[in-house]
Amino acid sequence: MIIRPFLPSDIQRVRQFADQEIGVGYYTEAELIENQKKSVGKNGEISSFLLIDETTDQVKGLRLAYPPGNWEHGKGSAQRSDLWPHPLSETAYFQSLFLSADVQGEGWGPKLSQMSIDLFRKNQVKGIATHSWKESPYNSSVRYLEKVGFKTMIEHPLYWINVDYVCTRDGKPCRCTAMEMYLEL
After folding, report:
1. pTM over 0.90
2. Longest dimension (CA), the chain
3. pLDDT of residue 166
4. What is the pLDDT of residue 176?
């Protein structure tokens, strides 16, 4: 397995991965093109990363992360930036972290995220905001982020209700809850 930046040439493979692992239609091709562009910082460094199986060349993991100035809000319905210790202009965003079921529990999620965190620290970003999936199996999403140092700011019920996709947990519309979390760097 290798971890490398998410490049424009990866869009189709990432969409296939997202349809399979997140839910059909969660990311459209146009969204992924925009997400990849939002990952590119002012200095040209890419803050989103992929986990690639070298033997099959398949995407096995995705960490979407955006530097300050390249994003305004998450994918869902709510955000409370007034609760954050640093303003939006100094805050990066963790959009999504997803892994194929066959590589979960092997430490790849933290490794993907650490690549983004290290890049943001190097570029003197003050913090990272995210919206974590509360209903993830065994609450793994929130637990993982807490291990990294994220703190919960607020809970948003029905966060993804207006996202037009088929949720892998509860179908359409998605009725899942987001925990808005923040990591000071």
Report:
1. no
2. 46
3. 74
4. 81
Instruction: Give the mean model confidence (pLDDT) for residues 112-122.
Output: 95
Q: Which of 56, 130, 125, 60 is nearest to 93 (CA)?
A: 130
* Residues 6 or more apart in contact with residue 167 via CB below 8 angstroms: 23, 160, 173, 174, 175, 176
Residue 45's Cβ-count burial label (10 Å; 0-12, 13-18, 19+) is middle
Q: Which residues contact 105 (CB under 8 A, 6 or more apart)?
A: none
Tell me the C-alpha distance between 170 and 139, whole Å: 16
**CA 133 – CA 56 distance, rounded (Å):** 29
pLDDT for res 5 = 97
Phi-psi region of 148 (alpha: psi -120 to 50; beta: other; left: phi over 0): alpha
At residue 88, φ and ψ (nearest 5 deg) are: -50, -35
The residue-averaged pLDDT of 125-136 equals: 88
Cβ-in-10-Å burial (0-12, 13-18, 19+) of 131 comes to: buried
Closest to 97 in 3D by CA, of 181, 5, 22, 180: 22
